[in-house]
Design brief:
single chain
């Protein structure tokens, strides 16, 4: 049994190396004094300073953050309400609505993006508006909401329905019982859905590319349009490193908070 552990550990080491080697390359290039990605000359922080000097890059980053935050908030509300609505159905209707809500997740992004392009072009012709911030926001809400439904639905199944009924018996009206009992029970799934929506929205390129129009761009689109300019590659690496560190910090804080909460419960 001990001999069998060595190949398994080596296998896991190779998997993690494969997953995180690209990120390690990002770190190296972001501190490389030479703008070439193949030649390492020395240590520098100038690329991190260049990130904040590029006004178009910062505007694109702000656009992405605003879109991600708004779409995550709205899709979390819509997805939670939809999950509760689906849960209240029984039998075949519930399975039908669950299947329909999963289609946007399975559907290829290029199909979703192109169909939204046709829809917004048609509606824009009727009402005379151009694609931009609003169309990107609507598109992101559309593909983020199913992920919230997918996160909240299991928590609804785990919830004891007698808790809600007990709240009503103890004097709460339906609205107060929902916010005091049901929402509290669903909170872990709601938070997970929000974080998934925020991450997918911030990271999205394909759907944003089809729906952004000519006057609006997000960070992934800006990087795509400028990734062949040699002097911008180290700058993009520096930005990626900063985003990676922010995400790692959030994950550490969330894990520490959950561990402390579990210890208090014990």
């Amino acid at each position: 049994m001990k001999k069998a552990k060595i190949p398994s550990k080596l296998y896991m080491l190779l998997i993690f190396l494969f997953l995180y080697a690209p990120i390690a390359v990002l770190f190296v290039i972001s501190f490389n004094e030479n703008k070439s990605a193949t030649t390492v000359e020395g240590f520098t922080l100038k690329w991190y300073a260049e990130v904040f000097k590029d006004s178009m890059l910062m505007d694109s980053l702000v656009n992405s953050l605003i879109i991600a935050l708004l779409s995550a908030l709205i899709s979390t509300v819509l997805g939670t309400l939809t999950s509760i609505g689906i849960y209240n159905f029984k039998g075949a209707p519930r399975k039908l609505f669950q299947t329909v809500s999963n289609i946007p997740i399975i559907n290829p992004e290029i199909v979703t993006g192109f169909s939204l392009l046709l829809l917004f072009t048609f509606v824009g012709t009727l009402f005379r508006f151009e694609m931009g911030f609003l169309t990107v926001l609507l598109a992101h809400i559309g593909f983020c909401t199913p992920y919230v439904i997918l996160s909240v639905t299991p928590k609804l199944r785990q919830m004891d329905n007698h808790i809600y009924e007990a709240a009503l018996d103890l004097g709460c009206n339906q609205l107060k019982a929902f916010f005091k009992v049901v929402l509290f029970e669903l909170l872990p799934g709601i938070i997970s859905g929000f974080l998934i929506s925020f991450t997918y929205s911030l990271d999205d390129f394909v759907i944003s590319y089809f729906t952004c129009g000519a006057s609006f761009q997000t960070l992934p689109i800006y990087i795509f349009n400028n990734n062949r300019i040699p002097k911008k590659i180290p700058m993009f690496c520096a930005l990626s490193v900063m985003l990676f560190l922010v995400i790692i910090t959030i994950l550490i804080i969330v894990n520490i908070s959950s561990i402390k909460a579990e210890q208090k419960d014990k």
